[in-house]
Amino acid sequence: MPLGTIPEPIWGKRAQPAAPSGSPRRRQIVNALLIFSAVVLLVDALVGDTGFIHRIRAGRQVQEAEASLSTLKRQNAQMREYIQRLNEDPSLIEAVAREELGLIRPGEPLFIVRDAQPARVN
After folding, report:
1. What DSSP assignment string belongs to 50-68?
2. What confidence category does residue 6 fall into, taking pLDDT thresholds of 50, 70 and 90?
3. In this structure, what is the dihedral angle of CA atoms 90, 96, 97, 101, given to the nearest 10 degrees?
4. How many angstroms separate the CA atoms of 95 and 92, rounded?
5. How many angstroms separate the CA atoms of 52 and 45, rounded?
6. Which end of the chain is more exposed for a tag (fewer CB within 10 A), N or C?
7. What is the predicted pLDDT for the residue at 12?
8. By the 8 A CB rule, do 36 and 28 touch?
9. Mean pLDDT of 97-109
């Protein structure tokens, strides 16, 4: 470089695009393979074992299971309250014994009602 000339800065140079290598047929095959791979990946992302549709179904199942769990917890709390009342309230025990076992108090009259056959009309 002669004296008095300013060198061109390195950062100012732009890279020239490389000339395309290979034949157009090869480029078509590579493009087709890339498109096919992209389609396969997209289909797998939508309907695969961990795909979008599977995740939506799993989310619905989780919501249904949570709803079922909250119902069971509510029923469990009601049963616990009923058990506590059975342990503490003698009148409830008596009511259950009368209803489910058909028990009566001593001295109470017992009525047995039989189904009567309908009268025949001539």
Report:
1. TSHHHHHHHHHHHHHHHHH
2. confident
3. -170
4. 5
5. 6
6. C
7. 60
8. no
9. 85
Residues across the chain? 122
Handedness of CA 75, 80, 84, 90 (dihedral sign): positive
pTM of the model: 0.48
Q: What residues have CB less than 8 Å from 9, skipping those under 6 apart?
A: none
The pLDDT value recorded for residue 19 is 59
Reported as a single tens digit per residue, the pLDDT across 15-64 is 666 656 668 888 999 999 999 999 998 888 878 777 788 888 889 999 99
What is the Cα–Cα distance from 18 to 108, expressed in whole angstroms? 109
| 3-state class (DSSP) for residue 34 | helix
CA dist 95 and 112 (Å) reads: 19
